[in-house]
Every structure is written in C-alpha cells, then in structure tokens.
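Shift notes (night). Ran Ligase-associated DNA damage response exonuclease while the centrifuge was going.
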Amino acid sequence: MARDFAWIRPEPWGIHVVPADTWIDPARAVPHALVTHGHADHARGGHGVTVATPETLAIMDLRYQTREGATPVAYGETIRLKGGVDVTYVPAGHVLGSAQILLEHAGERVVVTGDYKRRPDPTCPPFEVTPCDIFVTEATFGLPLFTHPPIAEEMAKLLGRLAAHPDRCVLVGAYALGKAQRVIAELRAAGHHAPIYLHGALERMCRLYEEFGVDLGELRLVSGATKDEMRGHVVVCPPSALNDRWSRRLPDPITAMASGWMRVRQRARQRNVELPLVISDHADWGELTRTVEEVNPSETWITHGREEALLRWHQLHQRRARALALVGYEDEDD
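Came back to this:
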C-alpha cells in the first residue's frame, strides 16, 4: 500500500511536522523549531522553543542570543513531541553539533539531513547512515564535476607553499563556523604545530570549539602581532577579509581560499585567490549518490542545491525523488 506521508509537509519556509506543529530549520520565527545546525541558512533567532544539540544551541546563543527556549538533545537521544512524533538527533558530520533529524510517526521514518559530509573531520562526529522511508538531502555540490580531493593533499599544497616562501604568510579565507576550525585542526593533524594567527572575527567561535573539546593548538590574534612575527605562518580570516584593507598589515600574504567552490576556476579568479584549496564541508557528487544508495529510502526529497542533476540520477536509477522549493538557503561560502 502506498504511503502518503501527510504528517510531514514541505512548505516554502521549512519542513512542517504537522501532528507536532513544529518546523525543521524554518527560515522565519516559529513557536517550535527543530534545528539541524548553526549556519545562518538553517538556524535563526526568535523561535519560542529551539530543539538542537547542545553544541548547536551554544553556537546559536553566541550568534543570535537564543538562550531562552533552548532545549538540548544529545546525539542518539529520542524525545517525543505532541501528536506522537518521536525525534532522534543523529550526527551529520557537517560542523560542530550538526545533526540529521530522524522523525518517526505512524510506523514511518523520515530523515532530514540539513547539511552533511562523508569525509572524516577532527572537529565533529562522522555522518551516520540511517535507513528511512523518506530521505531529505541537500544538493549543494549536486553535479558530477564536483569530486572533492583528499584533504591531506590540500594541506600539503598549503604547507608546501608556506615552506617555499618563509618571508611571507599564507592567508586562508575560511567560513567562520566550521571551515576555519576544520582547516586549523587538519593543519595540526598534518604536523603543523606552529602558532596560527586569527582574524578577530574568528576568535569567539574557535574558543567555543575548544570549550567542546576540539584541540586547535596555539592560536594568536593578528591584532596583537607584528609583520615580522607572522612571516612563515598561516593566518586564517573570513572570506570577506581576504582582499580587505585589513590584510595590508600582513607580510606579503599568499591568498588562499578553503572551499568546495574552488573546484571552479572562475570562482577563484573572482576572489583573486592565488592558492585555491578544495576543502568542503558538504558531500560531493559521489558521496551524495552513495549516501542515497546506502540509506535506500522509498523516496528522496532534494533541497538547497543543484536539484536537477540529482533528480535525473534518481530517474536513471529507478528511484523516486522530488525537489523541494524551500527559501533562504545559500552557499555559506563553503
């Protein structure tokens, strides 16, 4: 017998869980929200109740002052909402605190992934495959041309350039939540234990990561250093600061950008990036399709990304799928 899943409804502003009258990652304030992670296109302030992992709630409090109504749920913990809907948060592997949301109701299972990646990341628990009837997946890099290289290769490129120019610094543009901390942690994993210098806008988020047990090594602020002190070092800043007046205080910086979009040469040229680093916190094409095969849902819902190619892949593999018309989702400078 075909299922209609009338209890869960995609709306322009988010996914509505009807029996519980709750919303997943709503783009506007609602009385009751389930939030997958702390990026601004999924999390916002103003909700009456916000249910998320403790890490995501801490990120939201730092960014949006959302302490009131915050309801923490640990990974693997199941809570029951009104209407008999059970909710379980499962690691998504995207950034600190990121989660897939498993909804169970009337014998049916729906997984809303938010954003996710399948590569190991020292700053957050790995993605967990969770079988379900409906799988809601992102498609940020939903084109076959996107194949992310091993991150060890990108770290080797960065450190090789640094070693070749000891009188300069390498200035890495990285998104403030998730990407900056991952770049730092991966540099440490690659054996780079020298101090890393930070733009002031990244300090509070890096310290929050450390409060949750993520070791980032010695971090120093650019504002407290001289040009000579920063020669031969890595400096991390928000992407907006790469070519800003702020960068003039640095010793002849080699500009780098850590993003999955650096696979597209035009994007690197547009940002005047000398050293493109293809480092993404989203699944690439092969990981998106492999994840669907492993989850093996009855139907896939595709959102915020390149839906057409992933829809076509489903058709060619005789799998049911649909694209959702949700608003407010962006690239997040991945």
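The first helix runs from residue 54 to 64. Residues 8-145+282-323 form a domain with the Metallo-beta-lactamase; Chain A fold (CATH 3.60.15.10).
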